[in-house]
Amino acid sequence: MESLRMFKSTISLSCFFMFLSYVTILKPTYASKECDFPAIFNLGDSNSDTGALAAAFNWTPPPYGETFFHKPVGRFSDGRLIIDFIAKSLGLPFPSAYLNSLGANFTNGANFASAGATIRPPETIIPVGIFSPFYLDV
């Protein structure tokens, strides 16, 4: 009975990610002309980190975002992230990582996402030491 419930949960999760892929990659949806968003602000973890952890600690594991940007940009992906597609659909530039303030332009928003980020302070999570020090209160 437990294995059936886990199977259904896995199928549901797989369907969700297939739908998300379809909506964001295969069939991009663009913002209506009536929308006028001057900026975009993002909070998140490695799924939307555009270089914050790399800026803070000067280290990011490969692939760094090299395939799309043709140089290491500190991302935990090999190209653009969902936040980049959202910004593009709104007619905004890719959001800059807040911790990467040198040369960044925050007039169109900022990306506060950091790989390994959590909601709770890292010392309240076991095991300690494998999460980003940038949690929601920071």
Automatic annotation (TrEMBL):
> Any keyword Glycoprotein?
yes
Please verify whether the record's keywords include DNA repair: no
Name the UniProt key words of this record, in alphabetical order: Glycoprotein
* InterPro entries associated with the record: GDSL, SGNH_hydro_sf
What does the similarity note say? Belongs to the 'GDSL' lipolytic enzyme family.
Name used for this protein in its record: GDSL esterase/lipase
Provenance organism: Ilex paraguariensis (yerba mate)
Lineage of this protein's species?
Eukaryota, Viridiplantae, Streptophyta, Embryophyta, Tracheophyta
